[in-house]
Write a structure and sequence with these properties.
Blueprint (H helix, E strand, L loop, with lengths): L9 E2 L8 E2 L14 H13 L3 H14 L4 H13 L3 H14 L4 H12 L8 H8 L5 H14 L3 H11 L1 H5 L1 H13 L3 H9 L7 H13 L3 H9 L8 H14 L3 H13 L5 H13 L3 H14 L4 H13 L3 H14 L4 H13 L3 H14 L5 H12 L3 H14 L4 H13 L7 H16 L4 H13 L3 H14 L4 H14 L2 H10 L8 H14 L4
Antiparallel strand pairs: 1-2
Helix pairs in contact: 1-2, 2-3, 3-4, 3-5, 4-5, 5-6, 5-7, 6-7, 7-8, 7-10, 8-10, 10-11, 10-12, 12-13, 13-14, 14-15, 14-16, 15-16, 16-17, 17-18, 18-19, 18-20, 19-20, 20-21, 20-22, 20-30, 21-22, 22-23, 22-24, 22-30, 23-24, 24-25, 24-26, 25-26, 26-27, 26-28, 27-28, 28-29
């Protein structure tokens, strides 16, 4: 007895799992007809109505009666899968393949069911077989790409996604995964291009995942847009909103960041981390009083988090409100007596007020609490320089450079102290200063001050080509600081390039080197911001 071929099932979305559907025929079962053809038509009608369990019962009886029909076994698998019976569905698909090993629909259905299960790698052999069937290559490569991505084989994943072609382009979930594979395999620009193709109508969860990827790629403006489209995502309104505020702030859109943060707070999300974040945006747009208040709120909400005290004291010091800064630092060390970072902060506040002996004691206390931390020694060296105790500063910073070789500030300040000691260009101290700056730049290539100081010292040593390279780098990092332009003009003049020197000097309308007090202030503020409590 012949059973009509069962229509081949497909996935509505490859990444979604095993939501199969069958294109049904418009056939009506004759009342009382229990022939296999009529029973099959009844199963079809049940599947059209979404009664997958009942359809599976009918198909199971048919498959028992006609065990060698691969299409019937595949249809049973579709019904079982849609009814949530994955293990039984996979057994039915395997039965279909036992009957007809080249049956593409059963290969696809079994591979995708396994791919959505707990052991997706088990789908690989079936996907490989599917790739050899007519029209199955793209779907198979999309599946193999996901397996590779789960195993962090980003290069293989990107290659398979590329071979999947339109399957990826049509599926937003796969597009986001493709972007992750591209980024992981060292192709950030291609990852950005893929994420830009994500439709605005994609699900909020996909936009949220895209936002996280864009933020990792430092495309903060695009990340902010993605988070805006993530409303309703499973992450929840606060996490979505916080990430949007963070992306806007990192993109320099501080006014909008503050507006979104205020909306979150008005909705009841008054969290310490959000108050800390929005304080920086307030400060960036000149709303200093609001920045103060936000940090005070953060401290009230989470009094045990030292980072809020650090940021509030730093804000006070940046606005030369030294008395308030010291008052807050005193409160902080009383509440969190075991925090070396807060003792460093208090020492900085004391140094800003000229109480150097008290500052030294605070730095010493910080060093006792955490002997491996380099910042207390760095800060001590800096205030020793501020007091013109340069030999003492050199000694302290040399010691710190031996035990904290991965701290770029130690090496920068050591070079500064050596330079202030009056080193001769060809002396061992001159070579030591250059070596310290090389280490500082290797650890933090984008620090303007290290390149500037390196340029000065190398120019004094007559190494003009190298000096010019570092001074040009300093100008690139901070175009607003005229000191690098001035030093570059001097280097060109000493090298004999008078024309270039005049061009550069013309850019410097009022050149004034940082005095020692300003150097110390900026250095201490950098120390306040470095690290975490």
């Amino acid at each position: 007895m012949h059973v009509p071929p069962v229509p081949r099932g497909t996935l509505s979305r490859l990444a979604a799992g095993t939501a199969f559907f069958v294109t049904a025929l418009a056939v009506t079962n004759a009342q009382g007809d229990t022939s296999p053809q009529a029973e099959y038509r009844r199963a079809e009608a049940l599947m059209r109505q979404g009664h997958w369990g009942e359809a599976a019962e009918v198909l199971h009886e048919l498959a028992e009666a006609i065990p060698d029909n691969s299409r019937l076994a595949n249809a049973l698998g579709v019904a079982l899968s849609s009814a949530g019976e994955r293990a039984q569905a996979e057994a039915a698909f395997r039965r279909a393949l036992d009957i007809d090993p080249s049956y593409g629909s059963a290969l696809k259905n079994l591979a995708l069911s396994l791919l959505a299960g707990d052991s997706p790698a088990s789908a690989a052999p079936y996907l490989e077989r599917l790739s050899a069937t007519q029209g199955g290559a793209q779907l198979a490569n999309a599946g193999l790409a996901q397996i590779a991505l789960r195993e962090s084989r980003f290069g293989d994943a990107a290659r398979h996604f590329a071979l999947a072609g339109d399957v990826v382009i049509r599926d937003p979930a796969l597009l986001v995964k493709y972007a992750r594979a591209l980024a992981g395999s060292g192709h950030p620009d291609k990852a950005l291009s893929a994420l830009k193709r994500l439709p605005a109508a994609a699900s909020p969860d996909l936009h949220y995942e895209a936002g996280l990827q864009l933020a990792t790629l430092e495309a903060f403006g695009a990340a902010a847009v993605a988070f805006q489209r993530s409303r309703g995502a499973e992450a929840g309104p606060y996490q979505v909103g916080f990430n949007r505020v963070l992306a806007l702030a990192r993109d320099g859109q501080h006014g909008e960041a503050a507006r979104v943060a205020e909306h979150l707070i008005a909705e009841g999300h008054r969290e310490a981390e959000l108050m800390n974040l929005v304080s920086r945006s307030y400060e960036a747009v000149g709303a200093t009083e609001q920045a103060y208040n936000a940090l005070r709120d953060a401290i009230e909400l989470r009094p045990s988090d030292g980072s809020n005290y650090v940021d509030l004291v730093a804000l006070c010091l940046e606005h030369e409100n030294f008395d308030l800064g010291l008052e807050i630092a005193d409160i902080a060390v009383d509440r969190l007596v075991g925090s070396p970072r807060l003792h460093i902060q208090r020492g900085v506040a004391l140094a800003m007020k000229g109480r150097f002996a008290d500052a030294e004691r605070s730095f010493a206390r910080a060093a006792e609490l955490d002997p491996e931390r380099s910042l207390p020694g760095v800060a001590l060296g800096l205030i020793l320089m501020q007091q013109d105790r340069v030999p003492d500063a050199v000694r302290v910073l040399r010691e710190q450079s031996k035990v904290a070789g991965d701290d770029h500030l130690v090496h920068w300040f050591l070079a500064e102290a050596l330079q202030r000691s009056g080193i001769d260009p060809g002396s061992p101290e001159g070579a030591e200063a250059v070596g310290a700056l090389r280490r500082s730049i290797a650890l933090e290539p984008r620090m303007f001050q290290s390149h500037l100081l390196m340029g000065k010292i190398l120019a004094d040593q007559g190494r003009f080509d190298e000096a010019i390279r570092h001074l040009e780098q300093a100008r690139e990092i901070d175009p607003s600081d005229v000191s690098a332009t001035y030093q570059l003009a001097l280097a060109h003049r000493r090298r004999g390039n008078a024309v270039r020197a005049r061009e550069l000097l013309a850019l410097v309308s009022q050149q004034k080197e940082q005095d020692r007090q300003e150097f110390a202030k900026r250095g201490l503020l950098r120390i306040v911001r470095e690290g975490s409590p």
